[in-house]
Each structure stands twice: as structure tokens, then as C-alpha cells.
Amino acid sequence: MGGVVETALAERVREAILRVVPGAQIDTEMDYFDRVSVVVVSNDFDDMPQEERQENLWEALKAALGDEALGVGIVLAYSWKELH
Length: 84
Fold this sequence. Notes:
The chain is of the alpha+beta class and about 80 residues long. It has helices at about 5-20, 50-65, 80-84, and strands spanning about 25-30, 35-40, 70-80.
């Protein structure tokens, strides 16, 4: 993938996630397989099981990106209290 394509996909990933987790801190980077790796941190994840977090995030990505969601490698979701 070229840098512009990577940046465009990463931006679409951020937009899709912000629709379901407004105000989240989202960091993206390209992994070794040229896929977007994502870290999402939000208070919305307090007391939410990891499985539910993943379900919500991947549903949003698939809905917004369609087949482009295959360009996302991993999504890590944390609450702020888990990081402190």
C-alpha cells in the first residue's frame, strides 16, 4: 500500500470508530502486513466486557468500510481506568 492510501484508510477507520465511541482517543499505525492497527481508549469502555467492545467496534468498521475493513489488522480497546 502507498502512504496516501494508508493515511486515507486510517482516517476512515477513525471516523467509523468515532461514530460509535464519540470522544475516544484513537491511535493508528500500519503493521508489518500493511494493515491498520488501532488502539481505542474511552471511558465508554468502563465495565464493558472486551468481547462487547470488539463486537461494537468491528460492526462499525464493517458497516462503514465494507471490504476495506479487511485492511484493519487488530483493534485494541481500553478504558482509561484500565490504563491507570
